[in-house]
Amino acid sequence: QVRLVESGGGLVQLGDSLTLSCIASGRTDSTGSMGWFRQAPGKEREFVAAISWGTKNTFYADSVKGRFTISKGTQDNPDRAIWLQMDRVNTDDAAVYYCAAAGSIYLTAWGPNYDYWGQGTQVTVSS
Predict the structure, then answer these.
(1) Which of 77, 85, 87, 90 has its Cα between 20 and 30 A from that of 10?
(2) Secondary structure of residue 38 in the 3-state scheme
(3) Is 46:62 a contact under the CB 8 Å cutoff?
């Protein structure tokens, strides 16, 4: 089992930046990649970004490409960490952000490929 805990959500001003964190604990050696998804009220969950543990690859949704940056900590630590740097935030970015982990190192935007999910952290954008 892998436990994922997100943090860093909150209120952010339109155009400002915010960084989300996700800490994975447990059987993290079984995870090949991790990612971020988000869900706004009344909308479907959507993919945001993903990063591979076994390669240097990252993958972004078109809606956040160039504004968001996903990064990772060292793979050597039992507890693995990833971050999502959100720059030039807009109102469409307001959502609950979920961290997810998958067994494969190959990156995908398809939610069912991810085996573990966090509880989510709320991002609210103020204009």
Answers:
(1) 77
(2) strand
(3) no
Q: State yes or no: pLDDT of 76 exceeds 90.
A: no
One-character DSSP codes across 49-108: EEEESSSS-EEE-TTTTTTEEEEE--TTSSSEEEEEEE-S--GGG-EEEEEEEES-SS--
Q: Residues 102-116, buried b or exposed e (16+ Cβ, 10 A)?
A: beeeebeeebebbeb
Q: Give the chain's largest Cα–Cα span.
A: 41
pLDDT for 35-73, tens place per residue? Answer: 999 999 999 999 999 999 988 899 999 999 999 999 999
Question: Cα torsion for 44, 95, 89, 32, to the nearest 10°?
Answer: -70
Going by C-alpha positions, the residue among 111, 120, 95 that lies closest to residue 4 is 120
84 closest CA partner among 102, 99, 101: 99
Q: How far apart are CA 50 and CA 36, in angstroms?
A: 6
Compute the distance between CA of residue 22 and CA of residue 42 in angstroms, rounded to an integer: 25
